[in-house]
Design brief:
This protein has helices at about 1-10, 20-35, 55-65, 95-110, 115-125, 130-135, 150-160, and strands spanning about 15-20, 45-50, 50-55, 70-75, 80-85, 145. The chain is α+β, with helices and mostly antiparallel strands. The chain has one domain. Strand 2 (about 45-50) and strand 3 (about 50-55) form a beta hairpin. It is globular.
Amino acid sequence: MLEKLIKFFVYKTKGNITKIQLFKFLYLADLYTVKWTGKQLTNLDWRFYLYGPWTQDIEDALQEMNGSEIILEDRGRTCLIRMGPKGNEAENFNLPKSLEFMLENIRREWAGTKNDNIERLLNYVYNTAPMVDIQQRHEPEEKASLNLLKEREVLLREIEDTS
């Protein structure tokens, strides 16, 4: 599923996505599915590391795909990810329509490499329940586990409060 999600976001943004954005998009995909279903979309082990959600599995997948389906283009402080020679922009991802709709909403809301888009994305991600919770208890260098269920707990409390 991870490789499919990476290709989805890279292809749908036509390669106009940074590595930082991709990490955040994948985090949001997992976070939203946990929020509404109680289960993660992927089996990624999300960690709070260097101020944001991170997992070694994405780093590994990107390296494995680099040069074929995607190209990692280092631009100093930024790494741009674009389609590689074996990438197929018209690929059928065979995702359920509801999932594709959610992923497309993430892409539409946060895509674009302008600084204000990235800054809005970072602010949003850093204010999600798992990130707020972990930042209160851990230092950025610790690689502390993120509890995505914190987002679902917030939703359930909100629903309860309106009842």
